[in-house]
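The records we work with from here on pair a chain with its fold. Here is one such record, which you should read through line by line:
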Amino acid sequence: MPARALMFQGTSSHVGKSVLTTAFCRILQRRGFRVAPFKGMNMSNNAWVTREGGEMAMAQAVQARACGIEPSVEMNPVLLKTMSDSMSQVVVLGKPVGTLAAADLRTVRDRLNLAIEQALRGLQESHEFLVIEGAGSPAEVNLQETDLANMRVARAADARVILVADIERGGVFAQIVGTLDLLDPEDRKRVKGLVINKFRGDPALLKEGVRWLEEKTGKPVFGVMPFLTDLRVPEEDSLADRLAAPRGTPSSKPSLRIQILRTPTMANFTDFDPLHREPGVEIQYLTSAPEENRPPHLLILPGSKSTMADLAWLRKAGLDAYITGCLKQGTEILGVCGGFQMLGQTIYDPSHVESPIDSMPGLGLLPTDTLFLSTKITAQVKGIHLETGAQVSGYEIHAGRLQGARRGKPIFRLRERAGAVVDEMDGCRLEDQPVWGTYLHGLFDEPDFRAHFLKRLRQRHGLPEPDRSQTAEPDPYDDLADAVSKHLKVDEMLEEAAWTPSA
């Protein structure tokens, strides 16, 4: 019997579909079901690499962890990685197949849909339950022909749909009524109920509004979710609230200040999630140089989907001068993947893998060059930190190849790549300047390395160690599942998916 399916669609992007999907993955896993996540097509530069070396959206990898299973590319068969406002790299079942303009999506729609349906069938045959996430809104009338993530998937999976709306941004009643009104009548019947998300305040104030919605739409409201202020699971996209304002764990002692450059095609900002959760750390994302002359203790250049385009933007924004100014005032500079490439001398792209430009000078802070090749490295890796011997692990996603570190020193020795034994060096650092870079995404997930790194940074700047006397944090997926179970009518929602909770 094919897996039953419950699907979360939204009235817009960033209404909480990913979070609710993750929660229900854990809820079903705790009830003993073989459950898997699915999202037919995702547009995100936050990517994960599977054990087999396939690329998939980070959100579905996180949801797989909530299910207690290994992530696989079938859970996100089509991934669009934004390279510019109009161009995306297309990844199908884990492998890049080319670049595509948004206007040309119709030309490959059937091919992409075939991959989605095949992946969906495979998951249905090997699991009892699928929790499916939609994308954006199912009611974008100008995109119906190329929408491969919402109602087309719901019909293929015979999924019952829950429509999620974000009340924090206002207009929640119009969002819900308007979305339902724009749906095809048969698709509207597939929507079995509503969830109002991100409510701040007393939910009793919404009682009349909930009653009105149910009468107006004929759909039950399964609950009102409060705004969750301590989410410890990675968020889906660059609209994440953490990017809008300084974030961190409050401390009565001076904080370690970290700034991260928010470039137009920033990739894998989930690399820095573990730093957000550290006590005494304050993180700020920048799109321009701050007016105050208060340099951070650490400045990070993150990964990028279009390294040269982001480097050109960085210069236009005057952030190149800000970086060198911070370095002169004692700030440590770190580049991760694309940011590592930017810190070097020159970036070469003769085959125009990422850019129509043959080459571009880097920031000149590391003695490295980068050459882009048409084949991309995607692999999970393990190794050691050369300075401390601490075990490290992470994953690589890059088409650029390091072309020598003339006077720099490597940082990590890689011992394993994609399950095979290797003996390779990664990264580059200077002896006389606090500048370094690495290709390893997910590096700060390793607690020993993270603790060493932050301790060294605090010692360098004369900052005290924070209080770490509190007990270990509980499982974030269990916490999320508990919060959702408290505020939503979970059993009723699952009954709508033709499943009896007591079974």
